[in-house]
Please model this.
Amino acid sequence: MARTSRAPRGPPSVTPHRLSPVRRGLVLFSVGVVLALVLNLLQVQRHVTLFPEEVLSTLFSSAWWIPPCCGTGAAVIGLLYPCIDSHLGEPHKFKREWASVMRCIAVFVGINHASVKLDFANNVQLSLTLAALSLGLWWTFDRSRSGFGLGITTALLATAITQLMVYNGVYQYTSPDFLYVRSWLPCIFFSGGVTMGNIGRQLAMGGVEKPHSD
Model:
């Protein structure tokens, strides 16, 4: 009786473990809340932003609505980036590992720290320096057209919303030089958008099981 030869088994297939959009949104929301608390505390302590007494809460001397608003924005941005990449048919593969994402977050925090710590002769010099740092963050950790476009869109929308909030007396900036806010604020929003986009892309990719070679 003839035996049927079996084809040799190849290496096990790579199985990605991707989080659902809801879970990714919750992770992004949490990251946005934590960053908002830390960065806003820094600005309040350095008297860059001033809040009326009636809107301050006891939690980190910050307005209660800032963390959930920033968390929601972070979730929207982080979920949009991989969707735009998929729609354009340009999967983003530049420096796609968590170590790079963590470095991106560290640089973003450093840019925020520089915005309140660096002393320049005028706000124009500070704004140009932060703009260069923000573009450097995008070039180092992103380099995609979609990332640049969404970063610019985030900066414009977030700055416009902030202008409206300051105009209506929700809070104010000391020494405003760009209508009601500081001229470096769009740079912060741009770098923040790129950072949350990289986190969202990495979460969308998920972990991958590497096949073992005998």
